[in-house]
Write a structure and sequence with these properties.
- This protein is an alpha+beta fold.
- The protein has six helices and eleven strands.
- It folds into two domains: 149 residues, Alpha-Beta Barrel (N-terminal domain of MutM-like DNA repair proteins), CATH 3.20.190.10; 125 residues, Orthogonal Bundle (Helicase, Ruva Protein, domain 3).
- The strands form three sheets. A five-stranded antiparallel beta sheet has the order 2-3-4-8-9. It has a four-stranded antiparallel beta sheet with strand order 1-6-7-5.
- The longest helix is centred in the C-terminal third of the chain and has 20 residues.
């Protein structure tokens, strides 16, 4: 599943092409891509056609494109969640239908001319919707790429991500220390902090030398601060390398894969030597997926 770096790469790629663009046509050809939308495909198409896009913002793994308000009371956005295999692709106007294409949005940009934004999704777990924008609980901007203290209602419960200027590390550390769950489970709880999934949780825990099954409440403030420093470091490095691609399911808006997979130290490396101590990386079942860690460097506590 795309995590923060992959979704941020998509956001950054979309922003120059869609900010200020006029939506001139919408083809919601697969209603499975609108599971989060309160309405059918026809209502989705009608509500968007003729609206102008204000930009592209992100919190955690959610993207949204604020729409210029139709009235003072009408603050809404197109919200996107990529699910397991969703892609947001930029194509020239009139481009052929993409494989697994679900929704096509034709836009006219004042500088770049007419373009197409395609939502493609092989496994159909991702979705688009039109959602109301509501005030943020902390008064800060909604997320990366946003200057307004507004966030889609479907994203309001999602915690700030560790790269967000509004991320309150002291408050998150205090909250984590109340949790009896394993620290990796807490890292994946998007209501505590957002954007971290299986890959980057394994990588950050390896870097911080913390066993994924260590009870969160048993970790010291110092250990948690070290962990969050490593979370930020791995997210920033992955972002600089375009994210992690193991197959063709995750690509940027131009269809190109990221290359952070070559920098992984733990995730997906079971049986290979730990880059730090040389002992084989172990894999354990975890929440219908796997954890990867070094038994020597990350001792259970």
């Amino acid at each position: 599943m795309p995590e923060l770096p992959e979704v941020e790469v998509v956001r950054a790629g979309l922003a120059p092409a869609v900010a200020g663009a006029l939506i001139i046509g919408v083809d919601a050809r697969d209603p499975r891509a609108l599971t989060r939308h309160d309405g059918d495909a026809t209502s989705f198409e009608r509500a968007l056609t003729g609206r102008r896009v204000g930009g592209v913002a992100r919190r955690g793994k959610f993207l949204w494109m604020p729409l210029d308000p139709a009235s003072a009371a009408d603050r809404a956005a197109i919200i996107a969640h990529l699910g397991m295999s969703g892609q947001m692709l930029l194509r020239p106007s009139g481009a052929p239908v993409e494989r697994h294409e679900r929704v096509r949005i034709d836009i006219a940009h004042p500088e770049h001319g007419e373009l197409v934004v395609v939502f493609a999704d092989q496994r159909t777990f991702g979705s688009l919707a039109i959602d109301d924008l509501v005030p943020t609980a902390d008064g800060w901007a909604g997320g990366w790429g946003s200057t307004e203290a507004l966030v889609p209602s479907q994203v309001a419960h999602i915690g700030r991500d560790p790269l967000d200027d509004a991320f309150d590390e002291a408050a998150v550390v205090a909250r984590v220390r109340t949790k009896r769950s394993a620290i990796k489970r807490v890292l994946l709880d998007q209501s505590v902090l957002s954007g971290v999934g299986n890959i980057y949780a394994d990588e950050a825990l390896w870097a911080a030398r913390i066993h994924p099954e260590s009870p969160a409440a048993a970790l010291s403030v110092r250990a948690l601060r070290r962990l969050f420093a490593e979370v930020r470091a791995v997210l920033l490095k992955a972002l600089a390398e375009g994210g992690t691609s193991f197959d063709a399911q995750y690509v940027n808006v131009n269809g190109q894969a990221g290359y952070f997979a070559h920098s992984l130290n733990a995730y997906g490396r079971d049986g290979l030597p730990c880059p730090r101590c040389g002992r084989p990386i172990a894999r354990a079942s975890f929440m219908n997926r796997s954890s990867h860690y070094c038994p020597r460097c990350q001792r259970f506590s």
